[in-house]
Automatic annotation (TrEMBL):
GO terms for cellular component: membrane raft; receptor complex. PROSITE patterns: DEATH_DOMAIN, TNFR_NGFR_2. Residues 99-143, 144-183 form the TNFR-Cys domain. This is Tumor necrosis factor receptor superfamily member 1A-like. TNFR-Cys repeats lie at residues 99-143, 144-183. It comes from Pseudonaja textilis. GO terms for biological process: apoptotic process; inflammatory response. Keywords: Apoptosis, Disulfide bond, Glycoprotein, Membrane, Repeat, Signal, Transmembrane, Transmembrane helix. Residues 1-28 form the signal peptide. GO terms for molecular function: tumor necrosis factor binding; tumor necrosis factor receptor activity.
Length: 413
């Protein structure tokens, strides 16, 4: 039989358990997560950490803000062109931002303690870069290439190279600032990809190009191959002869080579003799005219003078003197030399191909380009830039008549 005092003792711990359970429910209601927004912060209050009894919070900053190093609040980021000098003291305070120094830039909003250093363009001979726009406080230097050039890579280490002209082929896709021309070779040629150049199949020594050349080869029947070769050869010869005749007539029509005399040998008797001798010659026989001029000159000059010196004194002294940079002198040379042979004339004088192409690229007008190339040669040749040197080159180019024409033009000035 259970004594009555036992039930009274049992009720006491049961009541204590009920009281603790009710207290726990009330605490749980107050500890439910309650999100609340602060300036630039989305904060959440979570349950107690039972191990330490301390409250724990996770802070997430909005776009355009960053978390303070202490993890207590968020700060507004600095604008582009500036950097962070000092953190904000509270979520409602602004940080201290400073403008980037000279030679530095910052392209976006940031919390960086310093700006980035401007990178100069690599304009040396290895990269050939040019500066498209200078560095600003919010943008780095923009580097690029000249027109008709492309970048080999898309990073800052790119090299500028000239666009391919697809010789022995056709352009399938034009050159862009970031890619070279895409070429499609004609039949009988293959594309050498590392050079982007169409080479003849006769120079093919690898399997990949041999496969291409074999695919594009036209198979002919043995019985008709020789006859076809003969016909093609005959047509080629006829076409070449006709084209040569057309070119010669065009040159004679638009670029006639005038026969002039030096101002130092202005004997009227010499001109009359030459006129009478050349009147019976054909107009197109330029070699016969030159021969008569040489013979006539030898007959008029005294024997001692003809044997004692190669040229008259006035011509020799003028040719050995460095030509003047006067526009009158330079234009006299330009007017005498045919336009179609001007680049050849400059190459014989010693001007490099790159210099000639650069000047003609910079000066779209042909006459301005001629003038600048002649000035450039005079500057580089220095004391060797004489009329004697010009005469030697013109003689080598079979343009001896231009020498007397230059001397006649200068004598009239």
């Amino acid at each position: 039989m259970i004594p009555l005092g036992f039930f009274q003792v049992l009720v006491i711990p049961v009541n204590l358990i009920l009281i603790q359970w009710r207290i726990g429910e009330s605490l749980a209601i107050s500890l439910i997560s309650e999100p609340r927004r602060i300036h630039g912060v989305l904060a959440e209050k979570h349950t107690f950490d039972h191990s330490s009894g301390r409250e724990r919070r996770d802070i997430q900053c909005q776009v355009g803000h960053y978390l303070h190093p202490n993890g207590t609040h968020c700060c507004i980021k600095c604008h582009k062109g500036t950097y962070l000098s000092e953190h904000c003291s509270g979520s409602d305070k602004a940080p201290t931002c400073s403008v980037c120094r000279e030679g530095e830039y910052m392209p976006s909003q940031n919390s960086s303690p310093k700006c980035f250093a401007c990178q100069p363009c690599r304009t040396n001979t290895g990269f050939h870069q040019i500066t498209k726009s200078n560095c600003t406080k919010w943008e780095n230097t923009v580097c690029g290439c000249y027109s008709n050039q492309y970048k080999t890579t898309r990073n800052a280490e790119f090299v500028c190279k000239n666009c391919s002209d697809c010789h022995n082929g056709k352009i399938r896709q034009d050159c862009t600032p970031d890619s070279d021309t895409i070429c499609e070779c004609h039949r009988g040629f293959f594309l050498k990809e590392d050079q982007n150049e169409c080479l003849p199949c006769s120079s093919c020594d690898k399997e990949d190009c041999k496969e291409h050349c074999e695919t594009g080869r036209v198979i002919k029947s043995p019985s008709n191959s020789k006859e076809l070769i003969y016909v093609l050869s005959f047509l080629t010869i006829i076409f070449a002869v006709g084209f040569a005749v057309f070119i010669i007539k065009a040159i004679k029509k638009y670029f006639p080579e005038r026969q002039c005399f030096s101002s130092c040998t202005s004997d009227q008797q010499l001109k009359k003799q030459l006129a009478s001798k050349t009147a019976d010659k054909t107009k197109n026989s330029l070699l016969d005219i030159k021969e008569e001029m040489i013979l006539g000159t030898m007959q008029v000059l005294p024997l001692s003078q003809a044997q004692g010196q190669e040229l008259p004194d006035c011509i020799k002294s003028a040719r050995e003197t460095r030509i003047s940079d006067s526009p009158v002198v330079l234009y006299a040379v330009m007017d005498a030399v045919p336009v179609l042979r001007w680049k050849e004339f400059m190459r014989y004088l010693g001007l490099s191909e790159n210099t000639i192409d650069r000047i003609f690229f910079d000066h779209r007008h042909a006459r301005d380009a001629q003038y600048e190339t002649l000035k450039e040669w005079r500057l580089l040749a220095n004391h060797d830039a004489t009329m004697e040197r010009i005469s030697q080159v013109l003689s080598k180019m079979d343009l001896s008549g231009c020498i007397e024409e230059i001397q006649e033009a200068l004598a009239k000035q």
